[in-house]
Amino acid sequence: MKKNILIVLGLLALILPGLATAAGPGVKLDKADIDVTNTASLQRGAKYFVNYCMGCHSLKHARYSRLASDLGLNEAQVRDNLIFTRTEDGDKTAIGALMANAMRVKDGKEWFGTTPPDLTLVARARGEDWIYTFLRGFYLDPSRPFGVNNTAFDNVGMPHVLWELQGWQRLAEHGDSHTAPVFEQAESGRMTPAEYDQVVRDLVSFLSYVGEPRQTERKVIGFWVMLFLVVLFVVTYLLKKEYWRDVH
Q: For residues 159 and 143, what is the distance between their CA atoms, to the nearest angstrom?
């Protein structure tokens, strides 16, 4: 038994350093502090995503019609403001279609070195705080193809698509898993830092919703299930005492 435990510990000692290296340097994540129940924030996030992100990134597991019903929009609003793609026949994409973009796979590989990923599940895979930190972490780096790098994703292969809102910033101090990086504003954007942070929160809220549209309902159902189990435990315990009273 002791030999088996030593073997397992030895394997872990070999594996864990490799995992740490694969994960890359740590970065202190900023708290997104989002609210997926805020319909107005989700609507703004949908607007920003379609206008700034959807040219390269798709949401292939989400439908425009579901978006309309969940975000309190009618079909006309979605068709006029959120659907800009067309079918192979030249017709405007139907509201019941999935949220795919018009970029061809081979074009993405040629322009960016790899096809930009679908972002339907990015909030579940990376976490809301990571996305929030990533969208605020672009800084000028002349050595990169698009002139920018990112503190959360070193040597990122995408441009800073929100630059006109945030402006350009330089990295003054590199952070680590405990200390946030320090930026210096090189050129102001159309928004103040506080306004830009709100834009990012809206985007993160929207991506969090897309990754799990029923998360609010799930949490409510979970609360009532746990409450039921607590009541059931009390009743079961009292029944157990009653049944075993004469035995003891």
A: 13
Q: pLDDT band for position 248 (50/70/90)?
A: low
Give Cα 109 to chain centroid, integer Å.
23
List of domains in the chain:
25-213 (1.10.760.10)
Q: What is the pLDDT of residues 143-177, one digit of tens each?
A: 999 999 999 999 998 999 999 999 999 999 887 77
Nearest to 45 by CA among 193, 199, 214: 199
Residue the block writes with tokens 């992100």:
53
Please tell me the distance from the alpha carbon of residue 133 to that of residue 152, in angstroms, as a whole number. Answer: 7
Average pLDDT, the chain: 86
Q: How far is residue 90's CA from residue 76's CA, in Å, rounded to a whole number?
A: 19
Q: What is the pLDDT of residue 6?
A: 45
Residue 169, Cβ neighbours under 10 Å: how many? Answer: 24
pLDDT in tens, 199-227: 999 999 999 999 998 887 888 888 889 99
CA distance 138 to 191: 16
Radius of gyration of the chain (CA): 24
Question: Does residue 181 surpass a pLDDT of 70?
Answer: yes
Length of the chain counted residue by residue: 248
CA atoms 75, 62, 60, 32: torsion sign: positive
